[in-house]
């Protein structure tokens, strides 16, 4: 910084102000300092900066199974929001979620000197692990259920399930079958609750849900079962990947979509618009989840530590395509 100051003909303090985007620097002075930085190839020493400011400008992220579209998209949204706020990201991806694993991940990130941590907690076991842990660093849970004192940012999964089911009922279907996600996933629970509440409100019977594990293969097996049942005209599938399997099974069995059966998915993965037929689905705004989770975390950091818990809910969006039709 001393070399930059000498090259630009300014004080060390002025260089610091430029680097920190301080507003009280004249435009011509800022330009001169930036030109000196480029000429000398100056790079900030983030370790030294952290020692002085007591902030690393790094946030930790704990996630589970980032091979799945939802967790992967959530992490991407968090990373983009953190970068926009001037922070780096350090990620720990866990193979399984339990109290010990979450505690070890939090300790690992705390040892790296992160300023705060976002935990992507889509499973009930992860939320319970967070609720039971003593926390001495700002933490935000994404999804998270009832995570004790930890603030939670989530998509309204119940409303998403309700929107999908109500759409099918409004098209004149007598009832709606459901292919659900894994039992321990909070998102799966919420979508089941929304599906069931829409049917109950309409005075319709809720058929027994078919179990899935988020994979196209599990959707394919569920689709084969549904194709063999009489009276199935509408199906809400808990994610688009399983819906892909359902559509494949229906095609093999000669069941026309939407001519005989209407199908709605969930997530709006990029490929869903190119399924055969293009899939009606529910979109989750992962960008908004990322922005809100980073915003909640940064407010805790600015306040000097963990704050009282709260719940920020992001609404889902209905995306109509041609896999659904009226009776």
Could you walk me through the main structural features you see in this protein, from its secondary elements to its overall organization?
GO terms for molecular function: DNA binding. With 327 residues, the protein is of the alpha/beta class. It folds into three domains: 2-44, 434 Repressor (Amino-terminal Domain) (Orthogonal Bundle), CATH 1.10.260; 56-155 and 286-316, Response regulator (Rossmann fold); 157-284, Rossmann fold, CATH 3.40.50. The protein is built from twelve helices and twelve strands. The chain has helices at residues 2-8, 12-19, 27-40, 46-53, 69-84, 99-111, 124-131, 157-170, 186-201, 216-227, 240-252, 286-303, and strands spanning 58-64, 88-94, 116-121, 139-143, 152-155, 177-180, 210-211, 234-237, 262-264, 281-283, 311-314, 317-319. The strands form three sheets. A six-stranded parallel beta sheet has the order 2-1-3-4-5-11, with helices on both faces. The radius of gyration is 25 Å and the shape is elongated. It starts with a helix and ends in an 8-residue tail after the last strand. The model has no long low-confidence stretch (mean pLDDT 88).
CATH class of the largest domain: Alpha Beta
Number of helices: 12
CATH superfamily of the largest domain: Response regulator
Mean pLDDT: 88
Principal-axes geometry comes out as elongated
CATH architectural type of the largest domain: 3-Layer(aba) Sandwich
How big is the Rg?
25 Å
For this entry, what is the oligomeric state of its chains? single chain
Domains, number:
3
How are helices and strands ordered from N to C? HHHHEHEHEHEEHEHEHEHEEHEE
Terminal Cα separation, in Å? 72 Å
In order across it, which strands form the biggest sheet? 2-1-3-4-5-11
* Helical residues, percent: 40-55%
Characterize the largest beta sheet: strand count, sense, and whether it forms a barrel: 6 strands, parallel
What is the CATH topology classification name of the largest domain?
Rossmann fold
**Total count of strands:** 12
- SS content category: alpha/beta
Strand content: 15-25%
Catalogue the unreliable spans: none
């Amino acid at each position: 910084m001393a070399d930059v100051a000498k090259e630009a003909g300014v004080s060390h303090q002025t260089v610091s102000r430029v680097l920190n985007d301080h507003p009280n620097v004249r435009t011509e002075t800022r330009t001169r300092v930036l030109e000196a930085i480029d000429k000398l190839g100056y790079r900030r020493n983030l370790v030294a900066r952290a020692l002085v400011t007591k902030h690393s400008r790094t946030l930790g992220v704990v996630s589970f199974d980032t091979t799945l579209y939802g967790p992967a998209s959530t992490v991407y949204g968090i990373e983009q929001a953190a970068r926009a706020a001037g922070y780096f990201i350090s990620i720990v991806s866990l193979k399984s979620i339990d109290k010990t694993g979450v505690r070890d991940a939090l300790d690992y990130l705390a040892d790296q000197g992160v300023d705060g941590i976002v935990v992507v907690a889509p499973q009930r076991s992860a939320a319970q692990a967070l609720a039971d842990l003593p926390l001495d660093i700002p933490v935000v849970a994404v999804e998270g259920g009832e995570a004790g004192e930890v603030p939670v940012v989530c998509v309204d999964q119940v409303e998403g399930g309700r929107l999908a089911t109500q759409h099918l009922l409004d098209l004149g279907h007598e009832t709606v079958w459901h292919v659900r996600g894994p039992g321990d996933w909070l998102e799966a629970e919420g979508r089941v609750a929304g599906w069931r509440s829409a049917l109950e409100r309409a005075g319709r019977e809720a058929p027994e849900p078919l179990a899935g594990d988020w994979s196209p293969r599990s959707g394919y097996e569920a689709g084969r079962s549904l194709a063999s049942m009489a009276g199935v005209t509408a199906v809400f599938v808990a994610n688009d990947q399983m819906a892909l399997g359902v559509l494949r099974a229906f095609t093999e069995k000669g069941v026309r979509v939407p001519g005989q059966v209407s199908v709605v998915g969930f997530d709006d993965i990029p490929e869903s618009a190119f399924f055969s037929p293009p899939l009606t689905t529910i979109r989750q705004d992962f960008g908004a989840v990322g922005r809100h989770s980073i915003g909640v975390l940064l407010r805790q950091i600015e306040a000097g530590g963990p704050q009282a818990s709260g719940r920020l809910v992001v609404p889902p969006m209905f995306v109509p395509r041609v896999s659904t039709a009226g009776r």
